[in-house]
């Protein structure tokens, strides 16, 4: 007996539609969605021209105005057929389709000078990207970007030590614990060093940037600073060069160039000139992508060197040569780097791994073994607490370097870093509590304050969005109902045909925020719209776009994550599937069967 489910499933990307309630939609920049022509025709972006024509013919049989005699339905059909016809025109025109795929409606409304129309879609796509990039670069030409970094090094080693006082009998003795404030030990912390760096970047044409930066260091009441100017120019897609120099003494010049040998291979060279008493120290890096996400590299540093008598003798050199080999990789879920370096004065092995837990949280673990610093380990993470603000915490432990706790806050190009030295020597108890206490504190703060505050702000923003776009939402609901009215007669006929052969019958389909209370009205009934997509006992809904663009659908919960739940009957057996908004749907599938 033939399997009725055979060859009816789509690629396994449907999932169950679950998501984190705190995974925020970008509410700040949300606008009413534009029509998605692929969703209108119920097609994927990989659809062939034959697929487009078949879908167009199928919808035309239902939505063509001549198919309806009722004046109200005829008027509604004219509106829907205009959208269907527009979708067909765009997706069957290679040039328009490429522009639409890259930039949506904006691509159709922009005049592009892309040469002769016989170019392949890939060539058109590359040329559209180039023109759009140049357009953005010209818009940014006069924009000045500012970056500011502040580092405050704190010595807190005395906070965790008992105070020693001079004994009248000679030597030292530990002071008795006083009944002072619990914050008194914090007064023993000292700021060791303050470092500030600020830079401004502006465009000088589409290929040239000019950066002016200043830096200042203060330590124990003494310090210094300098101003650095840098010009960065892109000569071609393969070569870019940076030339920089400090404007005050001590003067230092830097020349850096990067050349892409091919799309997978690059070479970078840096020369730093402090004086002309010897050749400039060089740093050369050769890198190549070795897998889809990983890049291998080799870096050689000359250190201070000499050509004959020109340059410092070996005994007076402060920087020595080294060679490093490494591999780095980064994708949406994780990033890692492994490096081995060998040199005349220092060699090391370092490992670093970062995991992305969710869209707002990352955790990092690192370690190194060095001939000069011994064994070091670190663990930390950062979390996005607002749209533009990120906070990071880390603990660093060294067998010969003590225990340090780092705090970092970043917002819109501005960052403040506070490394706090807790112990000058290795202290396992302090290292343990320096790790556990911040994790517990951050977790409590996140659960007790950040998430509730975020939910409250999100709810207020959603209400504001819905009030602003109330007319749009009402119009979308009205148009969806008109589409359902147009689909009703043909869908009833299709349902009876499926029932007669024990085929695929949609019992109920709901779309929106399925976790919301029914009385809030954040769910739309799309049963007829889904049944209309059934053909020969098979339902196919490609993914990659929001389902609210499908004829008969609308967005009942603007600003919130949406899901689609379908209850259907096949072979007189009950099935159910829940998918995320942009996931594909295929039915019937055996895994959708409900226990009976």
UniProtKB/TrEMBL annotation:
BP term (GO), one: cristae formation
PROSITE patterns: DNAJ_1 (PS00636), DNAJ_2 (PS50076)
Domain of life: Eukaryota
Coiled-coil regions, chain positions: 470-500
Gene3D superfamilies found in the cross-reference section: DnaJ domain
SMART domains named in the record: DnaJ
Cellular component terms (Gene Ontology): membrane; mitochondrion
Protein name listed in UniProt: J domain-containing protein
Subcellular location, record wording: Membrane
Biased composition (Basic and acidic residues): 1-10
Lineage, uppermost ranks: Eukaryota, Fungi, Fungi incertae sedis, Mucoromycota, Mortierellomycotina
CDD domains in UniProt: DnaJ
Region (Disordered): 1-24
J domain ranges (all copies): 36-104
Keywords: Chaperone, Coiled coil, Membrane
């Amino acid at each position: 007996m033939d399997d009725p489910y055979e060859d009816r499933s789509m690629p396994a990307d449907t999932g169950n539609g679950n998501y984190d309630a705190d995974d925020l939609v970008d509410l700040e920049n949300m606008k009413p969605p534009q029509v998605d022509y692929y969703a209108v025709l119920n097609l994927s972006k990989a659809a062939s021209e034959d697929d487009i024509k078949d879908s167009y013919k199928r919808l035309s049989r239902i939505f063509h105005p001549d198919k309806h005699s009722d004046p109200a339905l005829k008027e509604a059909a004219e509106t829907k057929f205009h959208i269907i016809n527009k979708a067909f025109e765009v997706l069957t025109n290679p040039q328009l389709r490429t522009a639409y795929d890259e930039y949506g409606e904006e691509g159709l409304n922009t005049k592009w000078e892309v040469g002769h129309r016989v170019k392949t879609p890939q060539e058109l796509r590359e040329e559209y990207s180039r023109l759009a990039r140049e357009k953005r670069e010209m818009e940014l030409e006069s924009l000045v970007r500012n970056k500011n970094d502040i580092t405050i090094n704190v010595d807190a080693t005395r906070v965790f030590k008992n105070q020693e006082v001079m004994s009248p009998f000679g030597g030292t003795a530990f002071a008795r614990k006083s009944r002072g404030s619990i914050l008194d030990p914090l007064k023993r912390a000292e700021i060791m060093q303050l470092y500030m760096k600020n830079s401004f970047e502006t465009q000088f044409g589409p290929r040239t940037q000019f950066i002016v930066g200043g830096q200042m260091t203060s330590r124990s009441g003494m310090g210094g600073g300098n101003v650095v100017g840098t010009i960065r120019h892109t000569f071609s897609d393969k070569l870019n060069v940076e030339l920089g120099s400090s404007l005050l003494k001590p003067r230092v010049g830097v020349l850096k160039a990067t050349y892409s040998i091919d799309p997978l291979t690059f070479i970078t060279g840096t020369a730093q000139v402090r004086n002309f008493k010897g050749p400039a120290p060089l740093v050369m890096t050769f890198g190549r992508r070795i897998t889809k996400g990983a890049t291998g590299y080799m870096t050689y540093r000359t250190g201070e060197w000499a050509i004959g008598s020109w340059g410092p003798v070996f005994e007076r050199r402060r920087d020595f040569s080294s060679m490093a080999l490494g591999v780095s990789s980064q994708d949406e879920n994780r990033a890692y780097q492994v490096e081995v370096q060998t040199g005349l004065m220092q060699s090391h092995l370092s490992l670093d791994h970062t995991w992305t837990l969710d869209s707002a949280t990352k955790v990092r673990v690192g370690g190194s073994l060095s001939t000069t610093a011994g064994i070091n380990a670190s663990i930390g993470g950062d979390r996005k607490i607002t749209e533009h603000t990120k906070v990071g915490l880390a603990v660093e432990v060294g067998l010969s370097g003590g225990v340090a706790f780092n705090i970092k806050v970043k917002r819109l190009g501005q960052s403040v870093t506070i490394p706090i030295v807790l112990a000058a020597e290795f202290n396992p108890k302090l290292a343990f509590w320096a790790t556990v206490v911040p994790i517990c504190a951050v977790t409590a703060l996140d659960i007790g304050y950040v998430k509730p505050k975020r939910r409250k702000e999100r709810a207020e923003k959603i209400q504001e969005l819905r009030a602003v776009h109330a007319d749009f939402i009402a119009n979308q609901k009205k148009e969806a109902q008109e589409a359902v009215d147009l689909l009703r007669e043909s869908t009833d006929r299709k349902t009876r045909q499926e029932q007669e052969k024990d085929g695929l019958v949609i019992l109920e389909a709901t779309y929106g925020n399925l976790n919301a209370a029914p009385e809030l009205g954040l769910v739309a009934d799309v049963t007829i719209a889904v049944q209309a997509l059934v053909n020969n006992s098979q339902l196919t809904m490609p993914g990659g776009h929001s389902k609210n663009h499908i004829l008969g659908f609308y967005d009942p919960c603007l600003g919130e994550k949406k899901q689609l739940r379908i209850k259907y009957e096949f072979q007189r057996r009950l099935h159910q599937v829940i998918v995320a908004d942009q996931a594909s749907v295929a039915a019937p599938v055996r895994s959708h069967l409900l226990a009976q």
